[in-house]
Amino acid sequence: MEMVRVSFIVGVDCQRCKRHKIKCSGSQPCCDTCRKRKLNRVIDDRAQKVLVTRGYIEDLQRKVALLERSEELPSPQTFSDDFDRPGSRDTAGPFEGTEWEQAEHNPEITNPLSTVYLGTSSNWSFARKVLSMIHEHLYDSPLPTDRRHFDETAYELGWDGLRTSMSSEAPMIPTLDFSIHLLNVVKFHVGQLFHIFDEPSFMEGLYAYHENPVHQTSVDPLWYIQYLLLLAFGKAFSVQRGLSSQPAGCEFFVKALQLLPDLTHLYQYPMIATEILCCVALYLQSLDFRSSAYGFIGQAVRISLASGMHTNMPIDHLGGEALQRRRRIWWTVYILDRQMTSFMGLPQSIEDNQIYHELPLFPESPHKVTALSMQIKMCQIIADVNRTVYGVDGRLNKKFLSSTKTALGNTANF
C-alpha cells in the first residue's frame, strides 16, 4: 500500500502583506510587520502549497470521476422535468463573452427558473462583472444572488400584467390646473430630449376631457391612455417617493397599461400609438424594467417603420404640422431604440444607410435642433462601437485595436 506523504512549505506570506504588496518575514506566530502593528497574523490556507504523492492525486481523481458519473445518470423524473421546462434547450450552456444570469435562489423573482441574457456591450453585464470581481477580491466569495438586483426588482408596479387581474377602478384624476402643472414638469424633464406627446392636439383633448370626461374617454381612448402616462411621469418627477416600493403616480401607469389595446388597433393610429409606446418604454426603463422597455420600444420601431416615418415623407399629402410631428416621433423612436438596444447588449435593429436624415423644425426653440443632432450623432457612435469593437459572442477580432482607436477618435471629435 502506497504511503501518502504530505509536507507543508512554511514561510507563507500573510494576507496583510499580500494586500499591501510588501515582503513578509514568514515568522511564527506573527510576522515582523504584524508584530509592529500589534495585529494577528492571518494566513490564507487555500494559498498554502503542499507536496503530495502522485498516487494520492490519482485516487482523488478516480473518486471525483465516480461521483460525477453517478450524478450524470438521470432518473425518469429528470427527463420529464427537462422536457416540460420552457426554454430548457436554449439555456443549456453559457456563451463565451456573454452572461446568463439565473435567479434560482431569489424568492422575489416570479419565475425563478427564467434566465436573463446580458449581451457583450451591455452596461448591465459590465456592472455585474465589476461588482462580482470586487466582491470576490474583498470577501473571497462570489457575489450573492440577492445582491445582483435582477431585472424588474428595483421597483414594484402593483400589477402582475395579467388582464384577468385588472382593477375596474380608475385612478383619481387631478384637477385641470394641477394637470397642466404636471404637464409642464414633464415638458421640462423629458420634452427637452424626447417627443412623447403633441402639445396642441393634446391640450385640446385635455380641455374637452375636463368638460366632459365620459365623452372624451369614449371618443378618443388613446388620448386618455396618453394622459394617464403623462400624469405618471409628472407625479414621478414632482412627488417625493418616500419609503414605498412603488414610484409616485404608478397607479396611472398601471391603468394605462391595462387599457392599452392590441397592435391591430394601434397600427390604425400610428402617430399617437408610437408616442404612447415611447412613453411606456421610457417609463419602464426608468424603473429598471429593461427587458420590458426593450419590447415596447421595439413595437414603436415597427409601427413607425410600417408608417414610413423613416423616409422622406411628402408634405403635400401629410401637411406641414403632421410632417413635423412624424419627424419628431421618428427621431425619438430612433434614439430610444439605439440606447435601449445598447443597454441590453443586442444587435441594432435600424441601419443608418436606410433612413432619411432630415431633422424636424423647432421654430420656438432653435436649441432643440442642436440637442437633437448631438443625440443622433451619439447614437451613431454607439452603433459603430457595437458593430466594430464587440465581436460575435464577445470574442475579439483581428481589427479590435484599430476599431477601438477609431471609436475613441469619433467620440473625442464628438
Automatic annotation (TrEMBL):
Q: GO MF annotations for this entry?
A: DNA binding; DNA-binding transcription factor activity, RNA polymerase II-specific; zinc ion binding
User: At the top level of its lineage, which domain of life is listed?
Assistant: Eukaryota
The record ties this protein, via InterPro entries, to: AtrR-like (IPR050987), XnlR_reg_dom (IPR007219), Zn2-C6_fun-type_DNA-bd_sf (IPR036864), Zn2Cys6_DnaBD (IPR001138)
Location of the Xylanolytic transcriptional activator regulatory domain: 293-366
Q: Where is this region: Disordered?
A: 71-91
What biological-process GO terms show up in the record? DNA-templated transcription
> Sorted alphabetically, which keywords does the UniProt record give?
DNA-binding, Metal-binding, Nucleus, Transcription, Transcription regulation
- PANTHER family noted in UniProt: TRANSCRIPTION FACTOR DOMAIN-CONTAINING PROTEIN-RELATED, TRANSCRIPTION FACTOR PDR1
Supply the name of the protein. Xylanolytic transcriptional activator regulatory domain-containing protein
Q: Which organism is it from?
A: Aspergillus glaucus CBS 516.65
